[in-house]
Design brief:
- Strands 1, 2, 3, 4, 5, 6, 7, 8 and 9 form a nine-stranded mixed sheet that branches.
- The protein is an alpha+beta fold.
- Helices cover 42% and strands 25% of the residues.
- A hairpin with a 2-residue loop joins strand 8 and strand 9.
């Protein structure tokens, strides 16, 4: 059947007949094809089945959440309110011990007054490149672009009113150039509202490249490349670890009391600080684009449950954790420079994803900063618990968690 299907072309549409033809040609039946696929037909191409992940709900996570708005026209993030809340976090994964560990970290934080989170910055970038005939032309183009940012903002806004290929939700904030020989790399920097935004900023960057630059620049580049790899799109980089700029820059913190460290986390302040010292130097020695323990586990689980782009787990997991002894115990913080999340568009529109976002009060418009802060708090919860398990003598608790919950084969 499969060879016959290849001869007459594998169907690519997502109508019910094409879906069923693919299933039959591949010999698929049972769990992967049993569910109703109609809610997923717009989610991706050549839809054939579904993969189901178990979802745990962990909480309550006690956290002081900031309320934020963007200041126009520069797009600076401004805090306009703050409230302490108790939220429940969905985790889609098959990693034994993850849910229990994150819960333990959340319980330790609640026992010590809860987490506190802050949104510092909100930016998404598309890194284009113009190849010019000479370095002199590349420099000229660079100076022109950086001098005409306000004009480009107006140009995009006017286009967005009647041209559906341009997104009015992606607002140009800054333009940064980097000249290398005859190449003028350009970081088009946007805010994208409550959507993660890669599609809308791609459309607007293409419009700027092929419209504004082509029509108004003092030089005519030989080639325009929409994405030339200087950006932080799905590739961890030092620039975005240090400066942010591809997603929400968020910090979560908590001060753990000595009593909590000993009673809930089953370790000591000294053991945690020794682990922090060794782990930080290990990260530096390896050239790691992160100074953290296991942020990807929490982020991947939340992303999978809430319809986020899983290709962005790596970049969203860049993190810089700190631990410092203070009078009240141990102050812990986690800086996430590029948390790429959205509460509208993409996979967030799928029924299951929207339900889990609604559980956290994060579905729809006006919720993306809340969601980013909850992700950061949950990630710090896992960092605290996993670190405590590793900090015990010989890391025995970490071993036992994997031995008992990971299962032996």
């Amino acid at each position: 059947m499969l060879s016959a299907m290849k001869a007459r072309r594998f169907p690519r549409r997502n109508d019910s007949a094409s879906i069923r033809a693919r299933q039959e040609a591949l010999g698929l039946d049972g769990e992967v094809t049993a569910i109703d696929l109609s809610p997923f037909v717009s989610a991706q191409e050549m839809l054939t089945g579904a993969a189901v992940l178990p979802v745990a709900v962990v909480g309550p996570v006690e956290v002081s959440l900031g309320e934020y708005e963007l200041e126009e026209p520069i797009g600076r993030v401004v805090e306009v309110g703050r409230a302490i809340e108790r939220v429940f976090v969905p985790l889609a994964h098959t990693e034994g011990g993850l849910s229990a560990s994150l819960y333990r970290g959340a319980r330790a934080a609640a026992d010590s007054g809860g987490f506190r989170t802050f949104v510092l910055r909100d930016r998404m970038t598309r890194a284009s490149c113009f190849v010019c005939r000479s370095t002199e032309e590349a420099v000229s183009l660079s100076r022109f672009l950086e001098a005409h940012v306000a004009e480009m903002r107006r140009w995009l806004a006017e286009r967005g009113e009647g041209d559906r290929t341009v997104s009015r939700h992606a607002k140009l904030r800054e333009v940064e150039t980097h000249v290398v020989g005859p190449m003028c790399h350009v970081l088009w920097t946007y805010t994208t509202g409550d959507a993660c935004g890669p599609n809308m900023m791609t459309r607007n960057s293409y419009a700027l490249n092929m419209g504004f630059v082509a029509e108004r620049a003092p030089v005519k580049p030989e080639r325009a490349i929409l994405e030339a790899n200087m950006g932080g799109d799905k590739k961890p980089s030092h620039r975005y670890f240090e400066r942010g700029g591809h997603g929400k820059t968020v910090i979560a913190e908590v001060t753990l009391s000595q009593r909590t460290v000993e009673r809930v986390l089953r370790t000591t302040l000294d053991d945690l600080l020794e682990l922090s010292w060794a782990g930080t130097h290990g990260a530096v020695a390896s050239g790691m684009q992160s100074v953290a323990f296991t942020p990807a586990s929490a982020i991947a689980a939340i992303f999978a449950a809430t319809g986020q782009d899983l290709g962005m787990v790596g970049t969203s997991s860049m993190a810089h954790g700190t631990g410092r002894r203070v009078d009240r115990g141990l102050h812990c913080s986690l800086r996430m420079p590029g948390l790429e999340v959205g509460t509208v568009g993409g996979g967030t529109t799928l029924p299951y994803a929207r339900s889990w976002l609604e559980l956290m009060g994060c579905a729809g418009a006006g919720k993306v900063y809340r969601f980013a802060q909850i992700v950061a708090a949950a990630t710090l919860a896992l960092e605290i618990s996993a670190s405590a398990a590793m900090a015990t003598a010989g890391s025995e608790n970490f071993f036992r968690a994997h031995h008992e919950r990971g299962g032996l084969r």
